Amino acid sequence: MHQITIKAINGYEMNLPGDTCADFTRHGEACWQIPEMIGTGIFKQIEFRSGFYLFIADYQVKQHCEWDIVFNRSGFGIEFCVSGQMQGRYTGMDLSVLLREGHSPLCYFPCLSVTGEDIKDTRRFSFSIIIEPKVFNTLVGGDCKHFPMAFRSIVDGTREYSYYQPGEITPEILSTLESILRCPLTGPTRRLFLESRILDLIARRLQQLDECSNTYPDDGGITLSDVEKIHQAASLLAKDMKNPPTLFNLARSVGISHAKMNRGFHQVFDTTVFGYLRKIRLQQAKQLLENHQMNVTEAAFGVGYNSLSSFSRAFFKQFGKNPHRFIRNRFAGRLTNSKPSS
Predict the structure, then answer these.
(1) Which of 166, 182, 215 represents a domain boundary (last residue)?
(2) Fewer CB in a 10 Å sphere around the end CB: N or C, the chain?
(3) Using the 8-state DSSP alphabet, how is residue 222 labeled?
(4) Predicted confidence (pLDDT) per residue in 212-221, tens digit
């Protein structure tokens, strides 16, 4: 179904499946130990039936690592990021997606490859469900009418394109994930227990999709192409944050509707277009103040604020300190660090 390669900066590579397994268990369950030269932790794969997998990654790397996943067949994927963050790039699509703790994207991928990065000394803990289309159709009983149109057309086989819809790990989903880790059973009863929990996860994640469809009946999800356009719009805002385009001009410039752009920013960045603009303005202002390139007034107007009081309130809300106190604390810290030791 898939081939996974992990590459460390020292040139070491680990291939899954393919390399020696630290532990194999019956009933479709396999476990790989992370080599010491890369880090600590495990990869685990459970095959419930042909075309239906659970993949668990729980590890921490000692150095920056990249991983490649090559999917040989089309499939649906549901990711649950419990801890850490991952930067994924979809080969041939010029698309990069940042997956953080609490995120749970649902996607459909034709045959493609994904390249990701793991950050040094950061624990990555995630669950991935991979389902081939025929298995997925069997699970939902062919009843797709409640799904968003873009997703429905993939499930029923009328269209074949990449699909991506962000989601979140709810308390109920987290509880189900924890029950998977605590499973006390062995042998075939363990497999039955785990499959029941995976079906519960799929049902809860599809319920989010159904609720999204009720909120946006024309198209509750966004495709990978839409995500790319959302990132393009974000780049345009970053390039001219002092004089940003209007929402309608921004949407038109990347070839997406105004409504879908608003929806896309919520799904990709978990904020509005204005919220995203405010965030990058404040981050830029903070950097200017840290590097002593500008004073508070210059930084405020330099990133597009027309009111110093509005800038100060927004800065305090974002960073917990007003900009003047932020500068004083930074200056005091440098004086302390520069004192000779006695």
Answers:
(1) 215
(2) C
(3) B
(4) 555 444 444 5
